[in-house]
């Protein structure tokens, strides 16, 4: 909370997989919809060479971070 509207919940500013960094929009469950501002921000990140994605739940987020960090 307190961030600019649409900005992802988690940022890992480490280059891997030819990306400049990782951004994750976290959702608790599949029922939680991603807002238009969040989609717009993730699209912008991808255009700039970042990996931006939505993760549903803790396990999905951990799996994504592990994949990203291991390169």
Descriptive notes:
- By secondary structure, the protein is α+β, with helices and mostly antiparallel strands.
- Helix content is 37%, strand content 21%.
- The protein has two helices and three strands.
- The chain has helices at residues 36-47, 57-70, and strands at 10-12, 22-27, 51-56.
- Strands 1-2-3 form a three-stranded mixed sheet, sandwiched between helices.
Shape: globular
The helix/strand class is alpha+beta
Q: What fraction, in percent, of the residue positions are helical?
A: 25-40%
What is the rounded Rg? 12 Å
Task: Give a quick account of the main beta sheet: strands, pairing sense, barrel closure.
Answer: 3 strands, mixed
**Could you give the order of the helices and strands?**
EEHEH
**Strand-residue proportion:** 15-25%
State the end-to-end distance: 30 Å
Detail the topology: elements first, then pairings.
Blueprint: E1 10-12, E2 22-27, H1 36-47, E3 51-56, H2 57-70
Parallel strand pairs: 2-3
Antiparallel strand pairs: 1-2
Throw out a few tags for this protein:
71 residues; 2 helices; alpha+beta; 3-stranded mixed sheet
Entry summary:
By secondary structure, the protein is an alpha+beta fold. The chain is 37% helix and 21% strand. The radius of gyration is 12 Å and the shape is globular.
């Amino acid at each position: 909370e307190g961030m600019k509207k649409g900005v992802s919940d988690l940022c890992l500013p480490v280059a891997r997989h030819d990306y400049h960094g990782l951004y994750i929009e976290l959702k608790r469950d599949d029922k939680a919809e991603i807002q238009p501002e969040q989609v717009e921000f993730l699209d912008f990140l991808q255009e700039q060479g970042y990996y931006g994605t939505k993760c549903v739940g803790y396990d999905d987020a951990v799996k994504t971070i592990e994949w990203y960090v291991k390169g």
